[in-house]
Amino acid sequence: MTAQDGAAPAPDPAPPLPRVLCDTAELLPAGDDVTGGARWRLTEPGRQLDANVVRIPPSGRVDTHTEPDLDVLLHVLDGTATLVCADGERALRAGLLAWLPHGAARGVVAGPDGVTYLTVHRRRPGMRIQAPGAADRLRPAPDGGG
Fold first, then answer.
1. Which of 33, 64, 81, 138 has the lowest CB atom count within 10 Å?
2. Is the domain covering 32-115 a CATH 2.60.120.10 domain?
3. CB 40: neighbour CB atoms within 10 A?
């Protein structure tokens, strides 16, 4: 039945509610913990953002790379690191917040005690399944034509 049939429309789903996702203090290394990698990821359905808490062990690194599409906020939670940029290096320490604009080359080298940081950026669109050749139809012709 539809509203035209005189039936009441289905109620809207409940709006999302703010909530606490984690305590980042509990994600920080303790004692001799020198392991690296993602400690936490934002996984909420329907989100528009991606976020990760990442640990780089002492003297570890994220090689210099360029993110072509996404601006990233990087907030240092614990430790020290060096942010490697095209125009030089910047010291990072707990409490600092850095903006990594899209198109900018960047790398991170952890300090002697390692570094733990939070990154936040717009969520990438999901991968889509397309018919064979569909992507080719969207590319301009080699002569620049449309």
1. 138
2. yes
3. 17
